[in-house]
Amino acid sequence: MDYSKRLIILKNLSGKLNNFYNKNSKSSPKISNKSKNKKKFDPVTNLDKSFEKFIRGILVRQFPKDAILGEEFLEKYSDSEYKWFIDPIDGTKAFMVGAPTWSNLIGLTYKDKPILGLANFPALNKFYINDQKKSYLVNNKKNILKTSRKNNLSKCKIIGHLHETLFLKRYDKKIKKIISSVSYFGAATFDALNFCLLAEGKVDAVIETNLKPFDIVPLIPIIEKAGGVVSTWNSKPAIKGGNILASSNKKLHNKIIKILKSSNKNF
Length: 267
What we know:
The protein is of the alpha+beta class. Helices cover 32% and strands 28% of the residues. It has helices spanning 4-24, 46-62, 92-96, 169-181, 192-200, 213-216, 220-225, 250-260, and strands at residues 31-33, 43-45, 67-70, 82-90, 103-110, 113-121, 126-130, 135-139, 141-144, 157-160, 184-187, 205-211, 229-232, 242-247. The strands form 3 sheets. Strands 3-4-5-6-7-8-9 form a 7-stranded mixed β-sheet, with helices on both faces. Strands 11-10-12-14-13 form a 5-stranded mixed β-sheet, sandwiched between helices. Strands 1-2 form a two-stranded antiparallel ribbon. The protein is globular. The two termini are 34 Å apart. The mean pLDDT is 89.
């Protein structure tokens, strides 16, 4: 398996995405609700769609046989063993209010295994990426990422995007037990940046619920090549999304998984 050309394209994509954003962000975004349940607000903007068209255009020109799954448009099926995952704006709600924590997520799998990821933050002028051996934060200079080695729960910092599903009745006891076991549990609504902070070693675990494949696949190789572990709450591969736990190391991951598995198995 040689994906060196795909890695080069991914590395160069950050600058192109930033230029695209700077050219197309002069006016206020047009916002609509794409939720089928009108009691819920799942926003999409014209820039979400524009970003995805732009990214797809680059990928299709360079790798016309590769499959593509994106958030805003129909899946491109293929017999190729390579598949791209695109979340054009991860953190649309943050983007809408001018918070700089939104990102462009692009990931690549080979035979259903995540191998490359890019988390690009145009408003923060930085991006996270991995290669075959390591993960990096590029922010004027290139920094190698390493996750924390902490595995004592009482000394660990854990964050999660505390939207309503994280505290549904069936999860309440699990989350409360984790909160009572660690030194810090924070309600961090930074979307993909939560996982990037884990890869940097700034937090020790991230707990999320109801993620889609394109929310997590681009982040899996970045976390893993930095030394971390990613799975569902029941220890399954995270490629299909769902309830996700990302930890800085295997020992810590197993301890948190044990708590998450402790009662209700239906997650």
